[in-house]
Amino acid sequence: MRPRSAHAAASCAAALLALAAWSVPAGPAAAAAAPAGPDYAIAQAGNYPTTPNGYGKFSVSWTSVGTTGITGVTRLTVDLPPGLTTTGALMYSTPYDYTFTESVSPDGRHLDATFNGTRAPGRGDFMKLDVRSGSEVPSGVITATVSNPSDVNPANDVSAYTLGGPGPR
Known about the structure:
- This protein has a single domain, classed as Immunoglobulin-like.
- The chain is built from two helices and ten strands; from the N terminus they run ααββββββββββ.
- The chain has helices at about 1-20, 30, and strands at about 40-45, 55-65, 75-80, 85-90, 100-105, 110-115, 125-135, 140-145, 160-165, 165-169.
């Protein structure tokens, strides 16, 4: 009986070693970890016009969500669907340790802005846009993007809001 018992013990030890070497796939907790390096995430929220000739205000926010800060020029764009226009954006951030410029296309449907500053992980900023709808009920998608040359994860650099739809994505 002794050899059989030793064999069983060896098999059990081998199974335990194999189990210890087995790795579990990453789950949602691992997916929520901050990306290694600089990374921006963008979002939008607010009161969008839902009636003809209506007014609204919404904000576009960007946050440093990586493990290291982001420096240099960050480009922000907002594209409005037909029937919506803006005259520009107001920047909100304290302390005043950045530069911000913006321009609007002649038709009022595209905003292009640059933000130059350093953002530590967890630090965010936002700009607020006034928008106006035309004579029709506004429909379509509002798209906001953020880009910085050092951003390591472009997957979270676009936010879309469907007017009359499910909301920001």
